[in-house]
Write a structure and sequence with these properties.
four-stranded antiparallel β-sheet, globular, 4% helix, 307 residues, Tachylectin-2, Chain A, mainly beta
C-alpha cells in the first residue's frame, strides 16, 4: 500500500473513545495499545478537561480492554489526584515479552517540567496501582540561565530484539524527536546526541515522534508536527511518515506536506498521537483527531499491508 492509499484508508474510521463532555477543549486522546496472549487488546488513553491551565488538564489515564480492537470497555482509571501528580499527558502501555507482565508509563507535569514515570508492573492492566510509580526520565535542571532541554513527554515504548526503545518529545521552546534505549525499562540512555528528525518544512516548529511500526526490513517512524504559520501550532498537529533501516538513520517520506490531518476539522485539523499496530494481515491505526467543535476523540482506521 502506498502513501496515498494509506491516507484514503485513514479517512475511513470508527470512533473508539469520546471525551467525557462534548464541550470545547475536552478530549479523549493519546492512545497506546498492547495485546495479551489471547489476543485481547488493551488501550491506555489520556482524558483531558478544558478548565485547568493548559499543560495541567490531563485528569486521568483510562485503560480499556477489547476482544476485537474496536469495541472497548474500561478496566482501570488512574486519576491525577490518586497518583499525586499535576496532570497527565500521553501514556504508554506495553507487555514485557520475557515474563508477560504489563507495564504502564505515564507522562506527568512536574513543577520543574515534564517527565516520564513508570508504574509498578502488573499481571493484568486492571491491577495498575496509581500510587506506585517512579520517575524514569526527566531533564536535568541547570541554573546557568542558558537554553537546555527542559522536559521530556509523550513516550512511545517498544521491545526491539534485545532492548527497550523509547521515543519521546524533548522540549526546548520547540519540540523535537529523541530516542532512548534501555535493557530494563527503568534506566534509559540516549540512543543519539541529536534528534531523530530535523525540525524543517511543514514540521519546522514541532517535530514529534508518534510511534514506530516494525517492518520486514527496517521500521516506519510515524511522526507529527506543525509550522508556526498554523493557528495554535502547539496543538494543531498533523502527521507524516519516515523510514529507518536501523533505528539510527531516518528518512523523511513526507517532507513537503503532512500525510494526515483530521477529516472533520473545525478551528483545528489535529491528527496526532497515533499508534499503528500489526493485527494479522492488517494494520490498525489508533489516533486522536479533532472534531468540528474543538473536542478530540480517539478513532480507529485499518488497512491491509504485508510486513
Amino acid at each position: 500500500m502506498n502513501i496515498k492509499e494509506i491516507r484514503a484508508a485513514c479517512s475511513q474510521y470508527r470512533v473508539v473513545l469520546e471525551p467525557d463532555e462534548n464541550t470545547p477543549e475536552w478530549w479523549a486522546g493519546a492512545p497506546s495499545v498492547t495485546r495479551g496472549d489471547n489476543g485481547e487488546f488493551f488501550l491506555a488513553a489520556r482524558m483531558r478537561e478544558g478548565k485547568s491551565p493548559r499543560g495541567r488538564r490531563g485528569y486521568e489515564v483510562r485503560i480499556l480492554s477489547s476482544g476485537d480492537g474496536v469495541g472497548f470497555a474500561p478496566v482501570n482509571r488512574i486519576g491525577r489526584d490518586a497518583a499525586g501528580v499535576i496532570g497527565f499527558e500521553r501514556p504508554a502501555i506495553v507487555r514485557d515479552p520475557r515474563n508477560g507482565a504489563y507495564r504502564l508509563y505515564g507522562c506527568c507535569a512536574f513543577e520543574d517540567g515534564w517527565g516520564i514515570i513508570r508504574f509498578q508492573d502488573a499481571a493484568h492492566p486492571k491491577d495498575f496501582d496509581p500510587a506506585k510509580w517512579q520517575v524514569v526520565l526527566k531533564a536535568e535542571n541547570f541554573a546557568d540561565g542558558f537554553n537546555h532541554t527542559a522536559g521530556y513527554k509523550d513516550p512511545f515504548i517498544f521491545w526491539d530484539r534485545d532492548r527497550w526503545r523509547m521515543f519521546v518529545i524533548g522540549y526546548d521552546r520547540v519540540e523535537r524527536a529523541y530516542q532512548f534505549v534501555s535493557s530494563d525499562g527503568t534506566k534509559w540512555e540516549p540512543a543519539s546526541d541529536r534528534p531523530a528528525l530535523e525540525n524543517t518544512g511543514w514540521h519546522s516548529f514541532f517535530t514529534r515522534p508518534a510511534c514506530v511500526l516494525p517492518l520486514s526490513i527496517g521500521y516506519l517512524l510515524v511522526y507529527e508536527g506543525s509550522t508556526i504559520l498554523w493557528r495554535d501550532p502547539d496543538y494543531n498537529i498533523a502527521t507524516g511518515l519516515a523510514y529507518s533501516p536501523d533505528m539510527e538513520t531516518f528518512i523523511d517520506l513526507t517532507p513537503d506536506e503532512p500525510l494526515l490531518k483530521s477529516t472533520t476539522p473545525g478551528l483545528y485539523h489535529t491528527w496526532r498521537y497515533s499508534h499503528w499496530v500489526h493485527v494479522g494481515e492488517e494494520v490498525y491505526v489508533y489516533f486522536e483527531a479533532a472534531r468540528p467543535n474543538a473536542t478530540n476523540e480517539i478513532r480507529l482506521a485499518t488497512f491491509r499491508a504485508a510486513r
